[in-house]
Amino acid sequence: MAAEVSRGDHHPERAVGRGKKPIATSPYLSIVTASRNDDYGGNALRRMEVSFLGRLEQMERHRLESELILVEWNPPPDRPLLRDALPWPRHTKYCTIRGIVVPASVHRRYEHWDKRPMNVGVALNCGIRRSRGQFVLPANIDVLYSDELVAYLATRSLKEDERYRLDRCDVDKNVLQCRTLQEQLDYCRSHVIRVNVMGLPSKREKLPHLHTNASGDFQLMSRHNWHRLRGYREADIVSAYGDGLLCFASYAAGVREVVLKDPLRLYHIDHSGKFNERPQGSGLTFEKWLRVPFLPANINSFFIRCCRILLTTFGYRLKGSEGGIPTLHYTEYRRMARDIVAGKLPFIFNDENWGLGQDKLEEYVISVGEWDEDYGRN
User: In this structure, how many other beta carbons lie within 10 angstroms of the beta carbon of residue 135?
Assistant: First the structure.
């Protein structure tokens, strides 16, 4: 594991002679993505191609010393690895491209492994733990960054004690038909389906007002703080609300949230199977018996909501589910968030082996940036 980043040391460099630009000795930014070659959500390879090549082109254009880490979790045995299935650039000057392979034997350690092919929380933690950047950005396989956002990152003005968020703009999937990055970004700007904005502060909950809406798509924070928090919560194979919990955990740890504004944008390519589209269990096993057939749906919903509040007040824990797999219920997530902020629960979720720290995993390198020559020799 690479050495911890010291506070305030945002851009270590090695001098190479008078009058020459210093050479970076570590990436300023690590972008961590987890996936597998199983066509999740439809047209997955094309979504990854557009997303990955777009990021790499922007890192090169803005001369940002960086690394792209792809965690291949539980690769399907009948399909090639993503390193072989995707078109990668032959040479990169500013971005090193790394891969980490997590085999099926590791995946089978987790309960419900046979119903869920990926453990996204652990997969991202795996890449975060092994990243070398001064700042680390977990990312989905199907996002595009506005050029203004990458230009901002290239100014190297991020701060150690801040966590950066922004609104997620969902865009029409036909953006995949555009060939160049410029065409794709132009299409995104004019074909936004919805914007996942920061919600209004709650008057009922004793929680800080944080941007938790679609927060898994952009959580940019120093590597030091990712290690201090030990990453996303790894309790369940379905990491429901793990991104929201991280928001409150980092707040409890003293990390200030900064919400970036337009034109700094993140575009998410729309697809099926998103978390907010999946059926979530109500948590009340006897809920169907509480519904009165001749009453309007809104009355039934109000009555059930009152029952939930009453039961949780007396210690009943609501349980969610996805496809028959138990997962964190929204009500329980908010209770945990309140306890974390109040100091009743620790803001560190995992033990010292978070992110498969005890495992020696296969790694590969697709391309090494010119600044990263020491890593290339190793």
Answer: 27
